[in-house]
Design goal:
7 helices, 27% helix, Jelly Rolls, 4-stranded antiparallel β-sheet, alpha+beta
Length: 260
């Protein structure tokens, strides 16, 4: 696989770094080749029938997402290393993988409501209330790789400018019901940008950027690989997160959203 930092023009990388610092999100279009995308889709298909993979369905019973797959295939392990290099350039900080997922989003697949990532409270196995992702750190960077074209009809990711503040400040903007969903009045004040881009594009955004997605109203798949990283020296944070998620007493462990 060609190294990302070698195939992306230096000028575009510098621009992406400036955009990320200023707005909290940026898009690098058509980075992955058709051959690499074909390989990734094949890997995902094989992993999706692995009994050790966590699979979720939406409220209509359609395949929604899978988790805990990165270290179970060499292709995704190599891609993880490429992403860490890219994020190091964009943030000037070393990053470790915090969590992973594939969003499948088949035709008529459910969208998700406007939310921050990780800004919620959960009850652990001991009955203690914990502060979402902030139990592990306070800065997270998302990488989303489009496996298919993101169009206006298939529910592309929509992102708004980064909201600054600590956990308590951001939590006040949410519905405070165990989900990270934003209050309606907060969502209405956000200026969301639909990220229309081709397959093989790379979207980078901070966890505190409000984001949402409508249902897939097209006749084609709209899949994406979605990794979350945090500046840390603790490589075990990935395993700890998924253990805590499994032990959580919260009923909803997958985002919900619009069915239309």
């Amino acid at each position: 696989m060609a190294r990302w930092l070698e195939i992306i023009e230096k000028k575009r990388m510098t621009q992406a770094k400036e955009e990320y610092s200023r707005f909290g999100f940026t898009v690098l279009e058509s980075i992955l080749s058709k051959e690499h995308l074909f390989e990734l889709r094949s890997v995902i298909k094989d992993l999706s029938v692995n009994n050790s993979i966590d699979l979720y369905k939406d409220r209509s019973g359609l395949e929604r997402r899978m988790e805990q797959f990165t270290f179970k295939n060499t292709a995704t392990e190599e891609l993880n290393n490429e992403i860490r290099e890219l994020l190091h350039f964009l943030t000037d900080k070393s990053q470790v993988l915090f969590k992973d997922k594939v969003n499948f989003k088949p035709p008529k697949g459910e969208g998700f409501f406007a939310h921050y990532d990780g800004v919620f409270q959960f009850t652990n196995s001991n009955g203690d209330i914990r502060n979402g992702w902030y139990e592990y750190g306070n800065e997270y960077n998302n990488i989303l790789i489009t496996l298919d074209d993101f169009t206006r009809d298939n529910g592309p990711l929509e992102v708004a400018k980064n909201h600054r503040g600590d956990f308590e400040e951001l939590l006040k903007n949410t519905t405070c019901d165990g989900s990270p969903n934003l209050k309606t009045d907060v969502e209405d004040k956000c200026d969301f940008t639909p990220l229309i881009c081709g397959a093989g594009s790379v979207i980078v955004f901070k966890h505190s950027c409000p984001h949402r997605s409508a249902a897939n109203n097209s006749q084609q798949e709209r899949g994406s690989l979605y990794w979350t990283y945090t500046p840390s020296e603790n490589e075990g944070i990935y395993r700890q997160y998924f253990k805590d998620k499994a032990d959580s007493q919260n009923k909803n462990k997958s985002l919900t959203g619009n069915l239309k």
